[in-house]
Amino acid sequence: MPIIGEYMGMALTIDDQDKENREFFSWCAAGEFRLQRGKKSGLLRYPPTTACPWTTDRDYDWVPVEGKGTVHSYVEVHHPIQPAFRDKVPYMILLVDLDIQKGEPSEHEAIRVAGNLVSPDGEFAAPEIIKSVGIGTRVRMVFKEVTEGFSLPHWTIDLDANQPDSPWRYPQE
Amino acid sequence: MTLASVSEFDADSPKFLRGKYAICGIGETTYRRGSEESTRNLATWAIKNAMDDAGIGPSDIDGMLSYSGNDSVHAPWVAGDLGIRLNFYMDVHGGGSSTEALIGIAIGVIEAGMCKTVAIYRAMNGYSQVRIGGTGARSAVPIVGDQIHNRAYGWQSAGQMFAPTFLRHMYDYGTTPEQVAAVKVAHSKHASNNPKAYYKNRVTIEDVVNSRIICKPLHLLDCCVETDNATCIIVTRIDRARDCKNPPAVIQSVVGRCCKPRSDMHYQHGPISTVAGHYAKNILWPNAGLGPEDVDVTGSYDAFTFTTMLQLEDYGFCKKGEGGDYVSSGAIELGGMRPNNTSGGHLCEGYTHGMNMVIENTRQLRGEVDDSCPVGPDGKRQHTHDYSEGGCRQVKDVEVTANLGWAMPGTGSAMVMAKDSR
Asked: Does the annotation mark B326 as catalytic?
């Protein structure tokens, strides 16, 4: 049976055959961030794929990864496009460089994981919190349940980390 | 094992087609919001206009290519309406970057002997049916599998998907909102000299940066217009093109849907402020046998102000990181060193997923892009080259043009055309 969950009024579906996404999101539901690690390369990859982008190797293991990193870039939406986000603006999508494997296997590569900026308990971040986040902000991962066995990863400010004095933000507020 | 034929330095073989194919006909409908026509009717209208422009009839066309995002009409229907019997057709999935890629495909199928002359069209009601900005039908599509990693986060529309690239360019190179706004200002000046343009009003830097934020760094006026229209380009061999009514725009080089690494999610491979043109230029310029310095007019895709800048930079029209300076220097305006999108492009004329920029450059090469200058005794426009509002649009002595098509930061297409040397 496909996994179908309603999330913010949107129907999200993972088909039976899509075993990579099934496994990724079911680990999230278990409160663990796991990524595929190619058996030949030993390299992690994101989002889930069917082979190792560096070796063509189709064999992999799901390994636990620490969900911590630094904002590489972001989107700050003020005009909603999808109806589900109409009462959420402004909201942020963060593109986060994981600490692990940053700059590997080549200088400009990193595992860049997307998610919304949320509060520690998973609510969309308030506008005054959004104004404190930019490129360089340290964040940690939190999970939000879609349905049983299916959660989404999101990002929240890592209050235990050393934060930059002023993360880079678009000059107009 | 690495095959020599796919090594990254081998962009040589297609150069033997340099100058052997041409655009012989161009056509468009009016650019409107609310066409009240089916995409089938719009396509028929644009193709008929292109046939008339070339001075050819239904029996002269035996190939057809179209592209869409499931928002248009299939080629065989349109061909049937126009009495065209097809030896080849293909309806391709895709938006921006398709124009140049499909021109390359047309050259390939003609070269393979599959057909002789190909009409390429894009017919869309991008305002009144499937809105290009992503609201309405596009937002109603179910979210399945891989799309959960973006659309579930409210990361769906083109502006939202590209924003990390645009912001990171500002971070990496100090590019300012005002510099990038100069693209809209330039294109609005061009559109004010184009009676076909949907938006003909000139705007200022202040107008752009004071318009409301859609998603940072994009203000409303950094974004293209949504319109309803169809456009058509006819491609054939140079000798046939020379028999047509108008001078051929000769194709020197084409590169189609060239990608950055990790096209499944290109942000994994940085620098994310670099776009596909960084790779495409290594095919485009060697195949054309010339470089950016030889180009008189550019057509750098303007889905957003930023896309124009990023591509001009990565194709080598200025140094990497200096795109903000380049687009705000006046170079891209009519009367400047190398005008870009003289029709007003997607920001002002109308949104066609790239076709109208190729049509405009074809007219520039013919020397008949003008709509306003006085007509001389020979029936041709006497270009004043006065580019003030409502004036001339023709660039002086155009020999070479470049079109830089954009699908997204990670995928692009391009084409170089030249005036017929004969």
From this structure: no
